[in-house]
Design brief:
By secondary structure, the protein is mostly helical. It folds into 2 domains: 43 residues, no CATH class; 188 residues, MetI-like fold, CATH 1.10.3720.10. Helices cover 76% and strands 0% of the residues. The longest helix has 36 residues. The N and C termini lie close together (7 Å).
Amino acid sequence: MARRSPARVIGSRLLQALPVILLATFMVFALLKLVPGDIAVTLAGDNASDTRIAEIKKIYGLDRPFLVQYGAWLGKVAQGDLSQSLLTGEKVATSIGRAFPNTLLIVAIALVLALVTGIPMGVIAAIKPNGLLDKSVSMIASLGVAIPGFWLAMILVAEISLKLNWLPATGAKSFSVSPVEAIRHALLPGIAIAAYGMAEVARQLRGSLLEVLSSQYVRTLHAKGLSMSRILWQHGLKNVSVNLFTIISLLVNRMLAATVVIEAVFAIPGLGSLIVRGAIQRDFPIVQGVVFAMVIVVIAVNLIADLLCAAVDPRIES
């Protein structure tokens, strides 16, 4: 079967992503309507009359049917306009642009930590299965999966920040202004998110490597006199790279979702904090905009993973 060009692969993936975007934004829009309270009352101010509240609803289109409101928002998005915050009047795109770098830095640090620790652990466990190192890795990985991220975050704040005063407990710094300080502020949140990622990478890589190393062609390579290290690096990791790219894409998506809780613990003004604040204040455009941005990031990460997998193993394209 002929290989498809990267442009066709990207176009196909983008077409498949459209229903995901529509479903995600529609579900969030519908759920926000179920949140108790009325944003029009907040905008109208204390002791506002029913007439004033009705005027506010008309001004912001809150008196229109649900589907009409969603369609109007979708129409603006199609024109590149994510609307404005109902409370501050600031453009949603501006709020996202200010918060996104903080979230991106946390996820990047968490991903690097997860890969730097998880890959060696998975390799070590696969080389000598059922040995002491394998059992130790399995135990550490089980703890990483079992420990809640928010609980680990609070422990890190109490011990590393408040007790030892090694790293900041709250806040964030701009990477463009001070890269070192930005990394110091994002390191603890990154560790809290990376624990699960490290465990998942180690477990999945161990299983994939065990399957490859027990295959017939690897036994043939052993018989030809190739060393374990050469087999591992030249054949083993190459054959599990597709699984590794898939794991990484899933991890990025989960880490992005985890920032909603972790940023609240560390008081970091990122996308997670922005969407929580918007939901509490019933600021619908903020929540919708952040969800839309997160969905786009998830789609982009999955698309990159698909392209990398297809580059490593062309059979995937077909």
